[in-house]
Specification:
The protein has 18 helices and 24 strands. By secondary structure, it is α/β, with parallel strands linked by helices. Helix 7 crosses helix 8 and helix 17 crosses helix 18.
Length: about 525
Amino acid sequence: MSEENYVIEMRDITKQFGDFKANDNINLQIRKGEIHALLGENGAGKSTLMNVLSGLLQPTSGQIYMDGQPVTIANPTDAKRLGIGMVHQHFMLVDAFTVTENIILGDEPTKSGVLDKKKSVEDLKRISEQYGMEVNPDALISDISVGMQQRVEILKTLYRGANILIFDEPTAVLTPQEIDELIMTMKELVKEGKSIIIITHKLDEIKKVADRCTVIRRGKSIETVNVKDVSSQQLADLMVGRSVSFKTEKEPSNPKEVILSVKDLYVKDNRGLEAIKGLDLDVRAGEVVGIAGIDGNGQTELIQAITGLKKIESGKVMLRDKDITNLKPRQITESNVGHVPEDRHKYGLVLDMTLSENIALQTYYHEPFSKNGVLNYNYMDSYARKLIEEYDVRTTSEHAQAKSLSGGNQQKAIIAREMDRDPELLIVSQPTRGLDVGAIEYIHKRLINHRDKGNAVLVVSFELEEILNVSDRIAVIHAGQIVGIVDPKETTENELGLLMAGYTLEEARRQLGTEAGVTNE
Ligand SMILES: Nc1ncnc2c1ncn2[C@@H]1O[C@H](COP(=O)(O)OP(=O)(O)OP(=O)(O)O)[C@@H](O)[C@H]1O
């Protein structure tokens, strides 16, 4: 057997939190110039392993090698010195600074003790040209798109001399076009000799971008495969350890009376600009309505307005015959509405509280969760254990702090809390963002099951596949209005794409008809 020198080799890495092994003798070998995907269920231990590699966590045991030599990565400074850089999912940029200022922040070039602005501009220009990543160096971060902000994060890592770049779910917040651009950038980077490790739950992206993939299951490395030799289905099965179905089986819907009715709604965004402009929408009992749209077209404001998190300027929101316009969030919750918010850290969980407390967040002031103002922790704990079991929330115990859970498991906990109250109207934003395929399959089934019990379900997602999979009707939102309502069985991703870009249904169909005509010529 030939001994290959890997640019990075993590050998027998174990990381324990108390008695719990988040990483259990994991082996990971990265070749120079490859894109290596890390695949595993929520809570499998991917982020933990990458935190060990980037010096944020110390392994309990195991050794890291670089080019065959043992190295110690005691802190992020060591990682940086060794050329290991992390492109964070939640960008760590300063909004009020320019692109250049952000990139050089903490690493400013100086000349005789003074900031050498000229050199920093030149350095940035050189790097962005070398890797084909154009940016406007003088733009403020607050003024550029999410895709551009990610580009700045990547440039920042390169500026610091990274040769091994770790991407943690980099496409979660990107539009389809931005994803394509990122894939091109990654390919460019490895062509220039960089190595990339990418954590992603999206199997089609692994197929598109990665050379090899290491599968991690419950803290253990299971297998490393050549991506071209396996199908997405095989990857999914390998990761979960059973056969996974991508398509949710469901009976045709049987919609009944209108549960949610939104009429001529006007809502402003955080900057005071009109985000929702005269929007109408109905959701009936026994149906799932999916809202498709490009991020930033009013989805966030619409859901926040319905759930009482944002002021409604004019228009009406009715729940059956009850006017819930501008009621307080708690009054809306009490009206039998469940809400899985888009931003789970801001609105979904109190990260410093335990899982048990988080699961009781909407109900703690009722019996049996409390009596005469005193919390019944025994009941809260046993209820949390029931939900943890039922929704397969991977955690050490119901007493674990919410922040110690992996992102996907935090999401499962919120979904469990909101669904288990059996709300007549369930609103879910980005239900499966960051979830693994097994969990997605499960959540989709639960959404359909909730519908089949005669409830109304409203889903907002940037994933067209998800919208097509779970919805009975798809409402396309563009510039704060619903521009078309389509039947998922009769539409295509192309048609939805055009509607999302602002075409009317008629225009979209004409355009697609014309396109077909052109190809036939
Ligand atoms: N600081 C911590 N204290 C206790 N447990 C932790 C801590 N950090 C992580 N864990 C646990 O380790 C396990 C692995 O978490 P990790 O974040 O590495 O998973 P992941 O594979 O990245 O998941 P996801 O895909 O959901 O992001 C989880 O069960 C988590 O609860």
